[in-house]
Amino acid sequence: MDTDTVALFGASGVIGQNVARALQAQGRGYRVVGRSLEGLRREYGADPRAEIVTWNPEDPASIRVAARGMRTLIYMVGVNYWQFHLHPLLMKRTLDAAIAEGVERVVLIGTVYPYGLPRTERVTEEHPREPNTYKGRMRKEQEDLLLAADKAGSIKGTILRLPDFYGPGTERSFLYRAFDAALKGKRAALVGPLDVPHEFVFVKDVGPVVTALMDEPRAYGHFWNLAGAGVTTQRQMVKDIYAQAGQPPRMMTMGKGLVRLAGLFDPFMRELVEMYYLLTNPVVMDDSALQQLLGTVHKTPYAEGIRQTLAELRAQRQAKADPARAATAT
After folding, report:
1. CATH number of 172's domain
2. What pLDDT score was predicted for residue 283?
3. 158 lies in which domain range?
4. Spatial contact of 101 and 289, defined as CB atoms under 8 Å apart
5. Is 312 a member of any domain?
6. Residue 289 domain-assigned?
7. Consecutive 10-residue runs of the chain (330 residues): their mean pLDDT?
8. What is the pTM of this model?
9. Measured between alpha carbons, how far is 255 from 251 in angstroms, rounded to an integer?
């Protein structure tokens, strides 16, 4: 592999896949790191530029092997929503391994959680990081480990904060249920309220931003916001999804009480109660600093992102329904 080597830790996730696509488009080699060899081979086995490496995040020696020979780590490691205590633990192990192996740089893909309740209509990087939830505190601890290592001169670190995202492959996003229901002509079960200002980033836009940030020396030692393609609402997005699917909008809303009730049977919904404030007191980010740093931050308009997502979901369903025809088409 070339001297500008990069490893994607957490490559199996949807953000990892889109960062890999950005690197592919640039003709760059990269290493994909994940727990499942089968999953990595399925996603990246056809790309000759992809080096596939499995790791065991419980084993420091395994983490060192995954980081060995790399200049940059892009860290996108996910945990179950009910296991957020692992975020700082995994970051500490990965940082120790990366530093021991002489890795120069780490790019952490973060969230809005560390900001806590927004104090301003638009949140810049100057906004205090005072998380009001356990998950926010765990994410802040994760960030602080990287920022402290950067300040100490052990390794260079930067953080990119993302809002909610949508698009192909984002089955866990708030809007995925609406895409799925619209294509089936059914009612979308949404977590409300639906008319509060919100922002979303199209998942395909994330990869090029991550690689540009990785390559920008001035990015390190700081964290950066990536805002969505404008302020909208869940209701407006769902209306557009149904309209493009050729269906009248049909939706039902789950308030906090119903989310709590659903949490009796679903661990994800149980944990979602804590983060419900993001739907009533949304963190809408200002990313003018990122735009000034990178010069260009492409954002797909919502209508086009919805069109592309519906098209890919239709194609996936057609492939499942008629695998022989799909194979012939490719």
Report:
1. 3.90.25
2. 96
3. 6-165+202-225
4. no
5. yes
6. no
7. 77 94 96 94 94 95 97 95 93 98 98 96 96 96 98 98 93 88 93 93 97 97 97 96 96 84 79 86 96 95 98 89 59
8. 0.93
9. 13
216 plus 310 within the same structural domain:
no
User: Given this model, what pLDDT does residue 324 score?
Assistant: 61
113 within a domain of the structure (yes/no): yes
> What per-residue confidence (pLDDT) applies to 255?
78
Give the pLDDT score at 328.
Answer: 53
